[in-house]
Each structure stands twice: as structure tokens, then as C-alpha cells.
Specification:
Elements (H helix, E strand, L loop, with lengths): L1 E4 L5 H13 L5 E4 L2 H6 L4 E3 L10 E2 L18 E3 L4 E3 L11 H9 L22 H4 L7 H16 L11 E8 L9 H15 L2 H11 L10 H11 L4 E4 L17 H11 L3 E4 L3 H5 L2 H14 L5 E2 L10 H8 L4 E2 L18 E5 L4 E7 L4 E2 H7 L4 H17 L3 E7 L12 H11 L6
Parallel strand pairs: 1-2, 1-3, 3-4, 7-8, 7-15, 8-9, 10-11, 11-13, 14-15
Antiparallel strand pairs: 5-6, 12-13
């Protein structure tokens, strides 16, 4: 057991120390504000105060962040250390910075509570983040810090034994548009034919007719192929289904009352983790989220506890509060919808801290690092370049024994000419990279 001393109690300090030392390191910790209790304790000890108390303590010089309440606009300086960037640099400490304050600032997404110019979808832009501005968006910085923190603690206290962590890969899929042509009804298919005709897209017209007449498979129907892939490599994926009752500008999936769509959802819920992919419309109408969750629960017969926001559209704290109010326990939205990387600078799940309420919540956040749509639409990578990028994220996350989460869409993995080569990228990644970790 490890004791942490501070001059007064702080929910922020308790939260971040629990994340780093308990959840991610497996160390049992307790806190004290009594100097005498800290001095007399004979086990591992961290002094999180300005003054030294003993000769055998591990000293972290605190900045004020974890003892504040509320949200204030503060300049946060980023400095170069020996191997990585650090925030909240300090002196007279066993670390060159306040690791607790720095990790809390990034994990709580403190900067997303401050005023910012939203992007075209109303989201926090990655370009406004301290990680992007200082060149560490593509690094799981907190995992780097934690690895060195653990090593330093163990060098000081030989009795400390950290939990053995293993690299994990979690494949996830967003089913935004389950089928390209099938099961959409006459009205939508006739409209699609007219649009293709006006644009002179004769190949699309032929393909649509061939699919609708049963002469060709739907280009977005990759579900049996994915099933075989998961079975071969013993993968346990998560599927997130958009279950909007009616289509909208950004919600183009097949309505969940359609029998074939219901069967598709049931098929996956029988063998995999399934979750809600809240529609764009639910972001504008709060009542719709409950309806969509209830619809998915009625189809699957299971309680819905997993979620990922459509278009990665969320604002803090409102979206996360709404999810928890509706029984969501695990959210997979922590990443950007504009570029790949580490939005919270970590490659490990962590519990969300509600900053305005100053409390740790029950919502476990699973950050993703790679999404096919980012690579294709935003970063405009070729399939070969995308393979190099996803390989890069795999390698650095594996080194820190973190959790790698990727997002793929079924339309990228099908036979649509626009995404030619992307299915092969994913299969090659699973076969030549992930397979050797299993």
C-alpha cells in the first residue's frame, strides 16, 4: 500500500492518483493530510506538497491546478524533457514536472471547457488542442510518463509491485450505412437511380440494378467476411449501430424497424458486443437518444451499455452526462473526427471526470487512435500510407502495454470502387501485425 500526503484533500488529486496508480498500475493507495501520519508510515510514500517531510519519500512538487475548483483560462507551458514533452514543469522534485496535474489536465479535457472556435460540425477542433499545437497529438504521452513514474517509484521502493499489463487490440465498427442499395425501399432506390442518371453515373446504375435483382452482392455487405476474420484470429469486436427512427441529412442508415436491419443487429448481438451509435438528430433532440437506446434494447434483448457518437459529435460535459443518465457505462468516442491520434494523450481506458461537478463518474472512456474515415477523407492517405499509420499506432501502444482501438466502417471494407484497397489494408494489419500479439 502506498500513502500520498497533501496539505489538504482534493477530489482532483484523488481522481488522478487513482487512475495512474490504482487503475493503471494496480497499487492500493490512501491519502492523508496529516504530516505526522505520513512521517511515521514505513511503506512507500509520495509527498505531494511544497515542503519535504522525510528522507525516504518520493517528492512531487505540486502546482495549484489540483487544489482549485472551477475552470479558468490559464496558460499551460509545454517543455521538452529528456524523451518527451511535459506540462507544468517544476523544480526541487523527483520528477521534472507535476505528473498528477499534467495528466489531470489532459484526461479531464480541461481545454475543451474553455472557449474555442468550433469546427463546421460544432465540435472541438483538434487544431485547438495543446497536443496539436505542441506536436504530441500522435503520442500516448501519459503512458510514457506513467512508465517512467513507475520505474522511478520502484527504484525508490523495491517492495512496490505493479500489475502486469498486456497490450490489447479492440476492433470496433460503426454501422452508419448498413447496405448501399438493399433494404432501402422503393422511394430511396428510385431517388438514387435518378441522381445517378442525372450525374451520368451509368456504372452505379448497373450495379444498383444488379444488387436489387440478386445478381450481385451489396458492396457494403461485409458481415460474413468480418465474422470469418474475427473467428480466425480470435477477435472480440464491438459493433455500434445507428438506430435513428427516420433518415436525416447525417443519418442515412436503414431504419431499425426494417426486418432485415433488425435481423442484422440481432445477428451481431448474439455473438459480439453491440452498442448504440447515437444519431446526429439525437444531438439536437435529447429525447431521441432514449428512444434509440430503447429500440436497440428491444431488438437485441440486451441492456445497452456501450456507445460511440456519430461523427464523433460530443461536447463536455453535456454529452457524457446524457449518456450516463441513460445507463451507458462505456463510451468509445474519445478521439477526433478530423485526424487520427490521441485526443486525451493516453492509450488506456479511464473513468471520465465531470469537471464542473468535480467528481469521478461511472463512465469508462475507451480512447481510439485510428479511424478509416479520418485517414481517407481528412488526411487523404492512400491505402499504403494508412497501413503505415495504423502500424505506427500499434507499435507505440504495444510498447507501453496499452489498449489499441481502431474504428472501421463496413463500407470501407466492401467492394465499393471508391475504397479499393482498404479492405486489404485491414486484413493485412490483422494478419501480419495483430495476429502475433494474440
Amino acid at each position: 500500500m502506498l500513502i500520498i500526503y497533501s496539505t489538504h484533500s482534493s477530489p482532483r488529486l484523488q481522481y488522478i492518483a487513482d487512475v495512474l496508480l490504482n487503475n493503471l498500475s494496480g497499487i492500493e493507495i490512501f491519502f492523508t493530510t496529516q504530516a505526522e501520519e505520513f512521517i511515521q508510515y514505513e511503506g512507500p510514500k509520495i509527498n505531494y506538497s511544497p515542503n519535504s517531510l522525510t528522507g525516504d519519500e518520493f517528492k512531487i512538487m505540486p502546482v495549484s491546478l489540483l487544489f482549485e475548483t472551477g475552470i479558468s483560462s490559464r496558460p499551460v507551458e509545454c517543455k521538452e524533457s529528456s524523451r518527451y514533452k511535459i506540462l507544468f514543469a517544476t523544480e526541487n522534485s523527483d520528477l521534472p514536472f507535476d505528473i498528477f496535474a499534467a495528466s489531470f489536465y489532459l484526461l479531464s479535457r480541461y481545454e475543451e471547457y474553455l472557449p474555442y472556435p468550433p469546427d463546421e460540425y460544432g465540435r472541438f477542433p483538434h487544431t485547438e488542442s495543446i497536443a496539436c499545437k505542441n506536436g504530441f497529438l500522435q503520442e500516448p504521452l501519459i503512458n510514457y510518463w506513467l512508465a517512467d513514474f513507475q520505474q522511478a517509484l520502484q527504484s525508490r521502493f523495491a517492495s512496490l509491485v505493479f500489475a502486469v499489463k498486456k497490450f490489447r487490440f479492440i476492433p470496433t465498427y460503426d454501422i452508419d450505412i448498413a447496405f448501399s442499395y438493399l433494404h432501402k425501399g422503393k422511394k430511396r432506390n428510385i431517388g438514387g437511380l435518378i441522381r445517378s442518371l442525372l450525374k451520368g453515373e451509368l456504372a452505379d446504375i448497373k450495379e444498383r440494378i444488379a444488387v436489387l435483382t440478386g445478381k450481385k452482392n451489396d458492396p457494403f455487405d461485409v458481415y460474413e467476411w468480418l465474422y470469418a476474420l474475427h473467428l480466425k484470429y480470435n477477435l472480440r469486436p464491438y459493433y455500434f449501430f445507428l438506430a435513428a427512427a427516420s433518415p436525416g441529412e447525417f443519418d442515412k442508415n436503414i431504419p431499425p424497424h426494417q426486418p432485415d436491419m433488425r435481423e442484422l443487429i440481432r445477428y451481431h448481438a448474439a455473438g459480439y458486443h453491440t452498442g448504440i451509435h447515437p444519431s446526429w438528430q439525437s444531438g439536437d433532440n435529447r429525447a431521441l437518444l432514449q428512444q434509440e437506446i430503447q429500440t436497440l434494447e428491444e431488438i437485441t434483448g440486451n441492456k445497452v451499455v456501450h456507445s460511440r457518437q456519430h461523427y464523433i459529435r460530443f461536447t463536455l460535459p453535456d454529452t457524457y452526462r446524457q449518456l450516463t443518465e441513460h445507463g451507458i457505462l462505456n463510451d468509445f468516442s474519445m478521439g477526433y473526427g478530423t485526424t487520427n491520434g490521441f485526443r486525451a494523450s493516453i492509450a488506456s481506458p479511464f473513468y471520465w471526470y465531470d469537471l464542473p461537478r468535480e467528481e469521478k463518474t461511472t463512465l469508462l472512456v475507451y480512447p481510439f487512435c485510428f479511424m478509416d474515415a479520418n485517414a481517407y477523407y481528412e488526411q487523404q492517405l492512400t491505402p499504403s500510407q494508412a497501413y503505415s499509420e495504423i502500424h505506427y499506432y500499434h507499435d507505440i501502444i504495444k510498447k507501453v502495454k496499452g489498449t489499441m482501438i481502431s474504428i472501421w466502417h463496413n463500407n470501407f471494407l466492401g467492394t465499393d470502387k471508391k475504397f479499393e484497397g482498404w479492405k486489404e489494408v485491414y486484413e493485412l494489419f490483422i494478419k501480419e501485425v495483430v495476429y502475433w500479439d494474440l
